[in-house]
Every structure is written in C-alpha cells, then in structure tokens.
C-alpha cells in the first residue's frame, strides 16, 4: 500500500509539473511483466525452438498501469496508451520474436529495433484518440 501511495503521488506530481507548463501528457504503459527468474533473451540464446522462450503474462493491470489509467480517467489532459498487444500479439502469451525482431533485451526492456517498429502503432493511437489535435 505504501508503494502505491508514493508512486501515485509522484505520478500525479509529474503530471502536474507538465500541465503547469501547458503540456498535455501521454503515458505509454510498461511492457507486460515477465515471470520471476525468466530472461527472454538469455532463453533465446540457448533455445532450439522459439516457443521454448514464450511466456504468459498476467492479464490484470499492474499497480503502475492502474495508477496511470486512474490519472487519465481523472484528467482530460492525460492519455494512456497500452502497447501490450503490440508487444505480445497473442496476449497474454508473449513471444520473444515478433515480426522477425527480438522484442526484449532483458526481463523489463524492449530492444531499440523493436521500439522503432512501434512508431506506426504510436502514430495511429495518437491519431485515433485525437491527442495531437
């Protein structure tokens, strides 16, 4: 509970700092959580088949995702984008390779190449939600 309160307050303070400068806020949620002790890239380096490295993630929003979503619901100048289905097209099952690109370089971070591939999705989301108007 204490973690949530601190994280939520820091998030709201950061949003307020941007809004005080007249800046709207777009938050991209973190990548789906990899299970404890799993390292997709390390698995990939020793796997015979890609399927050996896929993992199942929880479909319930994390505490952080919920904080972001609550902030967006309460403030019309805040938007939250959820990349889960881009990172894991078979969500809640996540593959280590999507569209011939390695998705993650560790349990929490996506590769630069894969991040760049998300640009069309990001542009489409910004347009669909009329964020840049």
Instruction: Figure out the total of helices.
Output: 6
Rg from Cα: 17 Å
Strand-pairing-aware structural class: alpha+beta
Query: Tell me about the biggest sheet?
Result: 2 strands, parallel
Bulk shape:
globular
**What series of H and E elements makes up the topology?**
HEHEHEHEEEHH
What's the mean pLDDT score?
A: 94
Tell me the β content: 5-15%
- Assign a percent range to the helix content: 40-55%
- Walk across the major sheet and give the strand order: 1-3
The count of β-strands is: 6
- Provide the low-confidence segments as ranges: none
Straight-line N-to-C gap? 37 Å
Strand-helix topology:
Layout: H1 2-20, E1 25-28, H2 40-46, E2 55-56, H3 63-74, E3 78-81, H4 84-87, E4 93-94, E5 97-98, E6 101-102, H5 112-117, H6 119-128
Parallel strand pairs: 1-3
Antiparallel strand pairs: 2-4, 5-6
Could you characterize the architecture of this molecule?
The protein has helices at 2-20, 40-46, 63-74, 84-87, 112-117, 119-128; strands at residues 25-28, 55-56, 78-81, 93-94, 97-98, 101-102. It is of the alpha+beta class. The strands form three sheets. The chain has a two-stranded parallel ribbon with strand order 1-3. β5 and β6 form a beta hairpin. α1 crosses α3.
